[in-house]
Amino acid sequence: MNEQSLMKRRYLKQRAFFLIVRLSALVITLALVGILFFLFYNGLGAISWDFLTLPPTDSMTKGGIMPAIVGTFYLTIGAIIVALPLGVASAIYLTEYAKQGKLIRVIRVAVNCLAGVPSVVFGLFGLGFFVVFLRFGSSILSGALTLGILILPTIIGASEEALKAVPQTFREASLALGVSKWATISRIVIPSAVPGILTGSILGIGRAAGETAPIMFTAAAFFTAVLPKSVFNEVMALPYHIYVLATAGTHIEQTRPIQYGTALVLIALVLGIDLVAIVIRSVIRRKKRW
Amino acid sequence: MVQKASVISRRIKETLIKNIFAVFALFSIVMLGLIVFFLFREGLPIFRVVSVTDFLFGPFWYPTYDPPEYGIGPLIVGSVVVTILSSLIAVPLGVLSAIYISEIAPPRLKEVLKAIIELLAGLPSVVLGFFGMVILAPWLQETFDIATGLNILNASIMLALMAIPTISSLSEDALYAVPRDFKEASYALGATRYETITRVTFTAALSGISTAVILGMARAIGETMVVLMVAGGAAALPGSIFDSVRPMPASIAAEMGEAPFGGDHYHALFATGIVLFFITLAFNLVADYISNRFKEVGSGTL
Predict the structure, then answer these.
(1) Inter-helix orientation angle B73-99/B152-176, to 10°
(2) Measuring CA to CA, which residue among B226, B247, B22 is closest to residue B136?
């Protein structure tokens, strides 16, 4: 009898624990759903064709956000042009060429530390290096380079994982046929890793599109009357647009619908990009031939 | 003879290619070095105006007064307070949800929850800051009947949401890596699932989970937009969680636009960046050390 009640207590404990654990997963889910709900609920009304295709008018209180969409597009594309070749090349060295040793250890620690640098510090660095020292000024170029370095660790990590997932037998078979190491890497390993690398880069794009602090001092403008003509122009950007409208100026309450609308556009953009990556990845996992 | 030459040229080509890739791989180290160099280049001049001790522990941050005061004490306290409070929220939620995802949830739900965590990680920080400003702040203000909803509590809640994905996904990886034999041995001894999870799986994954927690906290310290938009911005020592603060990243982001280029204020903000950089660097190095030092080295044998 005593043993039975002890058993009961043990299972009661288990049930209580499972309940708490389930609740914590539920809280996180509700937080995400709640945030998305409020933004959609308040933002959908602001979205219209004009909102997406017109520039702001009447000192930012009316009109659309087209220049900010264009600016975010340029910055993001620029960032990926910077980060993708660098990131993939680093990953190739780390997985295909490097032997385990001190240098590799140091490179890995550096990549981890780079991933942990606060975004506002990237902004400071971009200001000190690209804007001031290299005299690029506050421009698409400075912003894209800053964002590119920011997402570099993401790209390296994802590419490494993709390259490691290519079975060793692929490499051995190629080398056994007398194919050189570089040809093996470029013809066999990289093509097999492309989907994984792609997923990682898409996640990097999503990250770059949503960042605010790194572009505040390096690229973002409160308002530009015309679209950028060269990489040395300042641009408006979606995240920065939300920030300035919500915190600065005299029309904070008046521009609330625009703020919600811009937040919704940004979220749709970033989460849309992330969803594409998640879907691609799950398709790859299911269809894997090896 | 011709063949020999081609073998040699092929070898040279291969070595060349390898070295080119090595140069690319060194880029991350170079970048980290450049970041440190430029932070110091722009930040060090402030120490001609104020001593290092006065800068770090000075209780007054009045960069625009005459005469100005450059003490980032209140900013550091602000960062520490919101980081600790957000960890109190994020660590239990993150770790427990990881346990649920990795050990308990049915496969389908597991995939959904992992996607949810990933989407939460993908939310731009400015959007979370905006949500905290327009939804959470008015609600806190009414519920607790306080002067402003832009305060430590609000910032900590929103920061916790940013740290949870880091903590949860890394903890889940750590739990997943625990060898099956451990759990099976525990079940074979008659332990319940609860006992197995808490005493075997969790313990075996503890180093990975600690790493996850440290990286999550590092994320909270360095996060900018949330604290910039919802922490309230008062550069003073807080008395309660309903007071507003001005953590370091918020101060840098808010003031850099107004600080005259090359002036003392500008240098002081860069110096604040140095402090922030080294705090997060320390967190990352500790996390790296723990994950290497206590690396899972396969199942143990007696």
Answers:
(1) 40
(2) B226
Mean pLDDT of the region B102-131: 92
Task: Give the SS3 label for residue A244.
Answer: helix
Mean pLDDT across B1-13: 76
DSSP percent split of chain B into helix, strand, coil, nearest 5: 75, 0, 25
Alpha-carbon gap, residue B261 to B253, rounded angstroms = 14
A144 closest CA partner among A101, A240, A199, A208: A208
Residues 255-284 of B with CB under 8 A from A: 256-257, 261, 269-270, 273, 276-277, 280-281, 283-284
* A80 to A162, A195, A209, B45: CA distances (angstroms): 18, 16, 10, 34
Helices A2-43, B107-122: inter-axial angle, 10-degree rounding: 40
CB contact under 8 A, A113 and B125: no
Rg (CA), chain B: 24
According to the model, what pLDDT value does residue B147 have? 86
Please count the residue pairs, one from chain A and one from chain B, whose beta carbons lie less than 8 angstroms apart: 263
User: Six-digit token pair at A215?
Assistant: 């572009």
* CATH number of A214's domain: 1.10.3720.10
If contacts are CB pairs under 8 Å, which of residues 202-261 in chain B contact chain A?
A: 215, 218-219, 221-225, 228-229, 249, 252-253, 256-257, 261
Residues of A in contact with B34 (CB under 8 A): 125, 129
Report the pLDDT value the prediction gives residue A277, as an integer from 0 to 100: 84
Name residue A275's amino acid.
L
Integer Cα distance of B93 and B262 in angstroms: 44
CA-to-CA distance for B239 and B214, rounded, in angstroms? Answer: 26
Same domain, B25 and B125: no
Looking at the 3D structure of chain A, how many domains does it have? 1
Instruction: List chain A residues with pLDDT less than 70.
Output: 1, 249, 288-290
**Within this chain, do residues B68 and B107 fall inside the same structural domain, yes or no?**
yes
Give the domain extent around B227.
Answer: 53-293
Q: Do B164 and A28 touch (CB under 8 A)?
A: yes
Per-residue pLDDT tens digits for B48-100: 989 999 999 988 999 888 888 899 999 999 999 999 999 999 999 999 999 99
Residue A222 DSSP SS3: coil
> Can you give the pLDDT at residue B237?
86
Using CA atoms, how far residue B87 sits from A2, B80, B81, B82, B159, in Å, is 41, 10, 10, 8, 9
Check whether residue B26 and residue B72 sit in a common domain: no
Q: Kindly tell me the sign of the dihedral angle through the C-alpha atoms of B291, B297, B299, B300.
A: negative
Please tell me the predicted confidence (pLDDT) of residue B302: 41
Query: Is the C-alpha dihedral spanning A265, A271, A277, A280 positive or negative?
Result: negative
Domain of A219, in residue numbers: 69-237
What is the value of ipTM here, to two decimals?
Answer: 0.90
Share of chain B above pLDDT 70, in %: 96
Q: Which two tokens stand for residue B302?
A: 């007696």
Residues written for chain A: 290
Closest CA to A72 of A212, A243, A236: A236
